[in-house]
Specification:
The chain is an all-alpha fold. The chain has 6 helices and no strands. The protein starts with a helix and ends with a helix.
């Protein structure tokens, strides 16, 4: 985040403040929030984010099995999100066969 800190320090600080306000125990505990962050990072395809949030999840009590399940849920959602496209494929094949 050096670039952001150097060029837009107010924005960098706001981002850090947002993180600090979110990643603490409240309605959801920090471990759960980090597992959500792991899962979201997978869907965003951010390798660095997966690494960071997996480490933080472990630091907050998550097991490797819990992290693996969070990743697996993301993989399921990513795959399942493509199922609605099968209707579009049917339309494409119908128009090709006309």
């Amino acid at each position: 985040m050096k670039f952001l800190t150097d060029k837009l320090p107010e924005t960098a600080n706001a981002f850090a403040d947002m993180r600090a306000s979110l990643f603490k125990d409240s309605a959801l505990d920090t471990k759960t929030k980090e597992l959500i962050a792991v899962s979201s990072s997978v869907l965003m395809r951010c390798e660095k984010c997966v690494e960071i949030h997996s480490k933080r999840a472990k630091e907050n009590g998550a097991t490797e099995d819990e992290i693996a399940e969070a990743i697996a849920v993301s993989m399921f959602i990513a795959g399942g999100s493509q199922l609605h496209w099968t209707r579009k494929y049917d339309q494409i094949f119908e128009s090709v066969n006309e």
